[in-house]
Fold this sequence. Notes:
- By secondary structure, the protein is an all-alpha fold.
- The chain has one domain.
- The longest helix is centred in the middle third of the chain and has 14 residues.
Amino acid sequence: MNILNYKLDTTNELLTSRIGLITLAHTIQVLDLSKTIDQHFPASGSNCALKASTFINTLVLSQYEGGECLNDIVHIAKDKALSLVTNQKVPTPQAIGTWLRRLGKDNQVLKPCKKQTKRS
């Protein structure tokens, strides 16, 4: 039986165990999905509000990571290495819940879907 001799060193570099999320975040950036999302989803009434793409990208990353509830988004928010790649602010679970409720009101979430199906 061969024993591999691994040597571990300390580092000050940012590390993450979420490498799959980094590749997904990079793909979102390369495809410029944020721009497309912001074009099709209703804008918020506030000037200081986050764009729809910020909420959706965060939800996609959380879902991809295996998140089961909105509070699981905290894991993404705490990952400093991931935030360097996503280059966007991660909304709080409360902010996402408020945004989802606002979209659900008056079926606003269906409007982008209807626009897209009319194009097809």
